[in-house]
Amino acid sequence: MKKHLIAIVFLLSSIYSFAQINELGVFLGGSNYIGDIGSTRYIWPNSFAVGGIYKWNMSPHFTIRGTYTYSKITGDDTKSGNSFREARGLSFSNSLHELAGGIEYHFFKYSLSKIGYTQTPYIIVEAAVANYATRDDGRIFNFTVPFGFGYKTKLAHNIGIAFETSFRYTFRDDIDGYPTYTNVDGDGNPVDPPPNPDDPNSVGNIQINSNNNDWYVFTGITIVFGFGREGCYTGTF
Prior knowledge:
Layout: H1 2-18, E1 22-34, E2 47-57, E3 62-76, H2 83-88, E4 91-106, E5 119-134, E6 138-156, E7 159-169, E8 215-227
Antiparallel strand pairs: 1-2, 1-8, 2-3, 3-4, 4-5, 5-6, 6-7, 7-8
């Protein structure tokens, strides 16, 4: 029992020692929207995105991260490359703030302070809260699930750079700000009903499918500065 306790204490102290390396930096890149309006390309940045990032390195393979990102989220049918959307001609612009936290897994050992641990691909899994404007409810907070991938390398002593893309599923269909209709045919194409004669402001169907919730994507680079006590962890955790 005593040997087991000693082993556990040693493991925790080793992880803690490595975890003293912190990283603080900025995110610079772009965003794109995937929904009922505009392009349906998965990675197609069309608006500037900027933010801050903090990382706490648990081990050479795992990093806890937190981010704040601001961006305009836009869509334009005329630039969609889809014949129906181009003819429809809708567009929108929305401002979005996001707070996210999660974990990175490095495929290779990585550290800004250790020789030989200088580059690796990685994957990201996070939980986030986004704030943006809607047509009916004003600005709201909405839970999202970011996930993505990237590649990081060391630029100089205690300075690192990473290139990453991460996707957000929003669980809602309201970023574009247009009302949602459900009139679609068997192929999912819109069916325009005539305007309501009792409502002079009524319009036909302007959405494609109310069952498709919105996505948005951040693509860009992060530049970070590492600080804190250099780690002594040598394991594979």
